[in-house]
Amino acid sequence: MIISASKRTDVPAFYGEWFMNNLRKGSFQVRNPLFPMKISQIDFQPSDIECIVFWTKNPAPFLKYLPEIEENYKFYFTFSLNDYPITIERRLPSVVERIKIFKNLATRIGKEKVIWRYDPILFTEELGVEFHLNSFENLAKQLSGFTEKCVISVADHYVRNEKNLKSIQWRNAAEDEISHLIKNMLIIAENYNIKLQSCAEDGLSKYGVTSGKCIDDELIGKLIGSKIKVPSSKERPGCHCAQSVDIGVYNTCLHDCVYCYANYSFESVKKNYAQHNKESLMMIGSANEEDNISMKKVPHHKKVNHQSSIFDASSDDN
Predict the structure, then answer these.
(1) DSSP 57-80
(2) pTM for the whole thing?
């Protein structure tokens, strides 16, 4: 089983203690986002977990737990780092502080285990190609040597984030803008020894960007020392992520980024966060008599063959 923690919220920033409590218990409960009275219970042993993928914009509160996690689990982080104005990313530490956190994390666990996300790429009247090229190069220069890969995507319009995007006069980018931006981002990334990949953006392949997997079974295979065969999640068009079990909840991230597709309103976020109980099996609230709890079968993925882990002392990299 691959645990995703989480595409729906920032677990390392806000729910680290809850996550660790349930990791120790070997159990999580997750409400179905579409059918809230249906709850999946996931019971597991450490040996059931092939990898944990953490999604975050600020893992600083979570770093104290890394030694414990390393004892029993393989893991990596996808770290979203843009340099947008505070009107867009409203409750994040400064970009200077986040760069320090990124470097600290990469130094601690290895640059191959920290995937940089320059995501999403937003276009407004103030934010155009020049802004993104300057911002991307500034960040790439500082993160060079602390990551091997950068994942990009152009902001998408969802019904859930429509109101917030309108508040910043978000616009669709013209084809020539995208072409000029992506071609130059590829050059910048190469100059700083960073591989550029896309997230659910197969259309960027015509500019030379490889379609990536944020939940990456190839990377996971390297971490565990065995290639694994994992079906694609097919969550949305262009998504190539391997199947995973996401333990997060929508409308729970306190970063309050305008473009977020996982938060519908910050008022809902605050109400949900008030119901958070770090001792519960569930991130928000707990199960009640009306809920239908079903045990979720832990998926075990077939190991294709054995290979040396990229962290084995005998590997060529050491």
Answers:
(1) S--GGGGGGHHHHHHH--EEEEEE
(2) 0.92
